[in-house]
Amino acid sequence: MKARYAATILVAGLIFFAGYAALFIAPDERTMHLIQRIFYFHVPSWMAMFTALSVAFIANIAYLATHKPTWDSWGVSAVEVGVVCCTIGLATGPLWARPVWGIWWTWDARLTTTFILWLLYIAYLLLRGLLDDPEKKATLSAVFGIFAFLDAPLVYVSNRLWRTQHPQPVILGGSGSGLDPVIGKVLLLCVIAVMGVMILVLIDRYRLEQLRREFEELRMEYETLNLEPSSIGKERL
Amino acid sequence: MSTARSCAILLGKELRLEFRTRELLSATIVFALVIVVLFSFAFDPTAAESRRYGPGLLWISFLFAGSLMLNPSFARERLNDTMDALRLAPISPFAILSAKMLANLIFMSLVEVVLVPVFSVLYNVSLAGVVLPLILVLILGTIGLTVTGTVFSAISSHARLRELLLPLLLLPILTPLLIAAVEATASLFVEQPELDRTWVALLAGFDIVFLTASWLLCDYLIEE
What we know:
By secondary structure, chain A is an all-alpha fold. Chain A contains 7 helices and no strands. In chain A, helix 2 runs parallel beside helix 6 (about 180-225), helix 3 (about 70-100) runs antiparallel to helix 6 and helix 4 runs antiparallel to helix 5 (about 135-160).
């Protein structure tokens, strides 16, 4: 419990400092000026999303291999957190694109891929809501999760071949790319801070899922006890 | 019994069931025709325009028709609990799944055999000289559609609102297939048609990825 409070305070401090650094320490961009600063949270949110969805993919495979309910809890928690990160990325992207590209949205490879991923993982959550039997829910949603994750590279490749407009990767993006050292440091800080928030929320969401599962089991137990008056009677005696 | 033989027997069962009434096939063909006709009101089907919109419209109608047609594939088995009987039989789960995939592939191909000539006439798109490459694109695209569609039909058959859920799961997954199939078909509907190999390769890649995935995961789909 103590470690949890310490981690929460640490991450809260980090994200506060990251916000300050992104707004005041990072130098002004030559052509885009203020609006460029959205990139300090746009890029980390995508990294957090890919991390969360990879955790979900591993959890889905692990669930099918072991049939342990804890893996199912990790799966659903990671997908939910991933969808939230994806939504942040999809919301901050157009805010930047409107002044820089002159349009809110474009059907570019990266944008389309993440939009499709967002739809797929929302479908995953809807599917879970529409399956009643807990074991069926875990197995079938794990299968769907694996299919969805396998689809992501295909969506990306097909859109890449089709049309692309998103800025090329600035970091490790080949010749002519590269960041100002201060920008690089601020971005690294933001990545660490956003990842920290993502991991904290993921762990909390996992705890919640485990509590729900426990509650559901207790409720079932209670209901079966109620159906058999004799056993209740025995306990009372 | 070998997987291939049990698959062939189950395929025979699927085909017999359908061709007794032909209700699924006729309804799907009519539905696909309705979409093609409706599109002609949404977009003006003059010759030059139809060359641009044609491939997209053709594949959208296949995808929509497929996402509705694939629904009963597993839901049908639940009606008389015949899925339990299939599971009890000494056959591999992949035989059950692949028999359904093959049956759906045949049904979907029949829908396309009817729809493509009708589309060609209504939208004034000439198919002369491109029939063979077009068949290749149609087959590759339909394999991808029926493989993923049959797997998702097995998933959604356990859920509430399954008729609505299946398109919701299936259509986003099919995005790369739709892009590749439309672009490959478009490369055949121009003045000097030449099949674009990149898109054919992508279609084949999609089929291989999801066929392998469904072979690996079929145990979990069929088990109770």
